[in-house]
Prior knowledge:
Chain A is α/β, with parallel strands linked by helices. Chain A is built from 12 helices and 13 strands.
Amino acid sequence: MALLRVENLSVTYHSNSGPLPVIERLSIKMDGGEILGIVGESGSGKSMLALAIMGLLSPKMTMRADYVNLDGEDLMKMDPAERSVYVASKAAIIFQESQSSLNPCFTIGSQLDETLALHQGGSRKYRKTRALELLDSVGILDPELLLKLYPHQVSGGMSQRAAIAIALACKPKLLIADEPTTALDVTIQAQILELLVNLSQAEEAGLMLITHDFALLSENTDRIGVIYSGLLMEHAATQNILKAPKHPYTKALLDSIPQLGDRHKKGSRLFALEGHIPPMSELPVGCRLGPRCPKAEKYCVKEQELITIENHGKVRCHLAQQPEKNDHKTLSGAQK
Amino acid sequence: MRHQPQFYQQQRIPSIAQRRWKSFRKNKLASAALLVFSLIVFAAIFAPFIAPYDPTLQFNDLLLPPSWYDEGKTRFLLGTDEIGRDIFSRLIYGANLSLKLALIVVIIAGSIGMSLGFVAAFSNRVIDQLLQRLMDLILALPSLLLAIVIVAIIGPGLPNAIYAVALVLIPHFVLVTRSAIINELNKEYVTAMILDGAGRFRLFAKCILPNILPPLIVQITLGFSTAILEIAALGFLGLGAQAPNPEWGTILSESHNNIVNAPWTVTLPGLAIFFTLLSINLLGDGLRDALDLDK
Amino acid sequence: MIRLFVRQMLMLLTSLMILTFITFGITRFFPQESLNHISSTSSQSNLLNEYIFYLEQIFNGNWGISQAHGTEVLDEFLTFFPATIELSVAALLFALIVGVPLGIFAAQNKNTWQDKFIVSTTLVGYSMPIFWWGMLLVLLFSLSWGLTPVASRLGFEYDILPVTGFMLIDTLLSDQPYAFEAFYDALHHLILPAIVLGTVPLAIFTRITRSSMIRVLRSDYIRTAKAKGLSQMRIIWVHALRNAMLPILTIVGLQISVLITGTLITETIFSWPGVGKWLLEAVHRRDYVTLHAGLLAIASIVVIINMLVEVLSFYANPKLRHKR
């Protein structure tokens, strides 16, 4: 049975000048133990997806969905208090800034203990052993010491490990990591990522890895969802996406990754998509990518639907149905 | 050359002052406060033309209630006090006096305080630290207590009260000026300007002054309201303006005894002080928001 | 921690030093005959010798004899001071107990009409001249509705032996049959002056709590606390308030001197037999000995309290506590 099923999730931001769409009709599915990568530029709404699932949207945002099914229960049918308790017992989230996501006035030990007490209970002594185990499992060398330290006293990598330990304290079935390594040094990034993947595999928990960096996802994920401007653009198995990306946007993202060693062609320039992600208030007509798309054509001013491509996945681009080499001119008529 | 067709709509970019004014106007409360304060200033400036009588002129009608009461007379709009003076005239002249005194206090305290703050910001550590400690200490002293001791030494009366209140206000100006300048000096564009070879004067005039102006303007507004309050408090305690003077605090202390049989002699002067302070404070809040100090 | 303590002590000593410079300087403007006790009499005295002599006298507790009562001025100060403390502490508690929850409530309901109402009310309170506010409340509560006593600390019908000087404690310590009645009467007398004195601090605390709380509620660690599934109560009162209190603590320290300024006026309005009233009478009598003693004593106390608050806020803030 699926661990997480989200159907037609929309998030709306209620600005002073009217409602703006942050995420529109997004559907995803995750199984236990699966690693799903969500990739997109900053401002694409990928973090909002995480916050919406966790029920952490700011009061100025509202969400709608046919259902958000987490481990067998539909979150949309719960009232807010009930929902936050349920979600917290099933899912945990790790943020980009681990330093500021820990309360500066309490020791790491007390923040870890608080979560343990809430979700697992047990005596003070039992919780202490659990806390030490957890810190040990996230690769902290001196857990006893870390328990007594305040967040500002440890390095960024260390506090991210502590944040992961706190997240694991509720034995989550689903772990969401929102840009977990962006704020860290490059050498530590790899360690933390490996840790997250290993831990989720060991606990058979689902891991949702949200990032702007395609390179991080390529080696670790089972499937990848590409989000642009609040819409799911492509959703397929990782090897399919890497081998043969169907959406121009996915292609553009992959082409913008620098290649090293043999794969690097001398004198070639890194690909960069022109322009920037449109603000929510000035969305283009039709395909959201239209104005930036290298393959844009007349038909793109029409609203694009997600279409299922055999042996691949889902793509929100009418070009995806055609063989790669086909001339674009012949497409527009044949489509409808 | 061919005439270029105009493709884009002409868009005038508003100046900083225009934008700030616009954002100030958006704040309805502050705009209303500006209006009220302007009215008070107007009344203060043209007091001799607006007030129907001389503020010390005594009539035979003692403790007459305001004109909307049955016993009131229309010639005394807000009634009379215990020796038959027209309250309306006294309050109008009081506005004149209070604003004038507060202005003098702010000018004295502001010029001394800002100069000291300037010195502290640009001088060496020792002088800066000493000045800093001294100002912290004066700030820690209860302002009214200090004013009372000063008045006790040089004697009660208006000019002395002004000196006392001015002295109490100086530290605020010093600290605000100093921290604003130091804040600005640490920014990178200042470093860039020094690297460009700007001299000290140019650096100050072109670079620092425009940027420390907003906090100083807000401090001046705050100082103005504090000055009015403290002068009135000294007047109320009998240490500021003396008896026949139509100073608001003094009027209040005179009418203290009539609170039961003639409550209007207490409420009206109080309302005058209150609305003046409220409008200035609202104005200061609005300015702070418009000048973007919090961000 | 020890280093911090030593540093604070040094700061305190410098402050007190500068304070004695000021008071010493002020005494030089006083008429000569009023200060015989603290000015050195030797003929070849220079300024330094005089200052040292002055310090000696101050430290020996020889603060002079008050002109009005003919008693040791330091003793007199100590008899009046508890009444002032009682009033100030009551006002401070009132301001904190009402202001902090109000600020939290406003922050939680940011931009609603309740929030806007609270913010405008604080502006009104902030602009209130307390000498007028006091008279107004007396007019309403005491004279019109007869709810509270007009003046003084206790009804005349009670005879309470001053032990600590704090009326609330003394009435309870008293072995008179009406001890409890007297306690309630003392409380009854305290309410209105405390409200008057606490109004401006209340407005300030509410505003500071609100803005501090809004900033904290926006922070990442509150989002984490929500993600953990903690109850709303625990998030607000433990996780958020602990952080939001840090700036409030600093403001409380700064309010001490504002509070003392207010007591001068409040005591006058309510005939409260405290230091404020004592000092004002001294001004009118030109009793320089009393004035000097009052200024020095109150200023030292304020400086010491400020230092204590600073140490406390250091201790309450882990970020500062562990900085070397």
